[in-house]
């Protein structure tokens, strides 16, 4: 005779209801969501550099708005799609999403099916067939607060993975831009050095002719040629620096070494007005600050989970089966009750260990809070330093332009006097000094232009710019 088997829980329903009611009452205080501590300080983080509003802040601009050079934009796109670190963090986000799904499914009972069969024969008679198809359902109720905080922790972990991706993207965008404009600067220095070497080689030839005419000497020729050779050697150094920088950029892009197409240093168009926005914007824009706060939120839910361990947890299971021998599965009420009582009493006997775990969780929460505050301080200092560097570089531009103009006039006048040899007022040392001074000033001007560009990029990064995912331009 066939029959379905469902263990009876009559007489025990009141016990389950009572236990569930106790769990709900005991864990209701564990349902509080994380809130930022009120004593976290954000005022004055930028020091005297605090200007503008958050809406117009550099950190609020997507990288396509900030870097308008199409050639650079194409490089950044390739980096975002090919860079190894970006691909790794994308996989880490998928892992975190899977863990969150597991945490959400913890509320759902698990089912297992284990069919069984057996043949039995006595004295070589016709064998008897025995089989059963039991379906077992297990529901790990646990402390409801514990399950909820586990899910919250998984949600925070997923957000942390996304924040890590934002940080990787932010650094990637800034590094590509910095290397790109470094290449543009090296191109400008190389072009200047090649032009200078060509001009100085002409000066060498001119000095030789003056010596043949008795208006100069061997010392002047040798000194002029030595300076020319020094510049020609610097051309080789600059060409090597360009190759090394291109290789570094190719590594970031995930590509084999090759020539990097680029425009010029002048292609960088800085915003007309630099605004940092209020310091509170760092909380929304900077991935490292967001990561620090997410770590604090994770510590908050860890404290809740440690508190939830003080309350009992239960695992309810039952079996619905099909068998051919008429046997019934029995569940011993006494054993069920003793198991439940054992789970209820377990937290009490573990009280010392549980208290220590909760204390450790609270200490880690305080550590995370200190780290969060420090991340804000560090971010504010980076903003202040980057803005100060930018302001200094911009202030030097006018002076350096005037210096180059003055030295250009000095070189032209000195060379003219040396050629004419008027009253022997100028010798070859005056010419070499003027030429060297002009070359150094021109190199310094190019270097200062690069410093201004990089300071602007660093300020953009310090304000959290470049971390937002942009939609490709249509």
Entry keywords:
474 residues, alpha+beta, four-stranded antiparallel sheet, elongated, disordered N terminus
What does this protein structure show overall?
The strands form two sheets. This protein has a four-stranded antiparallel β-sheet with strand order 1-6-5-2, with no helix packed on it. A two-stranded antiparallel ribbon has the order 3-4. It has helices at 13-27, 63-66, 70-82, 84-105, 144-212, 218-253, 282-285, 287-308, 333-349, 351-420, 428-462; strands at residues 3-5, 110-113, 116-120, 128-132, 135-140, 315-323. Residues 1-21, 23-27 and 326-338 have low confidence and may be disordered. The chain contains eleven helices and six strands. With 474 residues, it is of the alpha+beta class. The two termini are 72 Å apart. It has a single domain (35-108, 144-312, 356-462), classed as Outer membrane efflux proteins (OEP), CATH 1.20.1600.10.
Helix content: 55-70%
Mean pLDDT: 76
Question: Strand share of the residues?
Answer: 5-15%
Compressed to H and E, one letter per element, the order equals EHHHHEEEEHHHHEHHH
Rg result: 38 Å
- N- and C-termini, Cα separation: 72 Å
CATH superfamily: Outer membrane efflux proteins (OEP)
Provide the number of structural domains.
1
Q: Which residues form runs of ≥5 with pLDDT under 50? A: 1-21, 23-27, 326-338
CATH architecture: Up-down Bundle
Largest sheet: 4 strands, antiparallel
Strand sequence of the main sheet, in spatial order? 1-6-5-2
Number of helices: 11
Structural class: alpha+beta
Number of strands: 6
CATH C-level label: Mainly Alpha
Morphology call? elongated
CATH topology: Outer membrane efflux proteins (OEP)
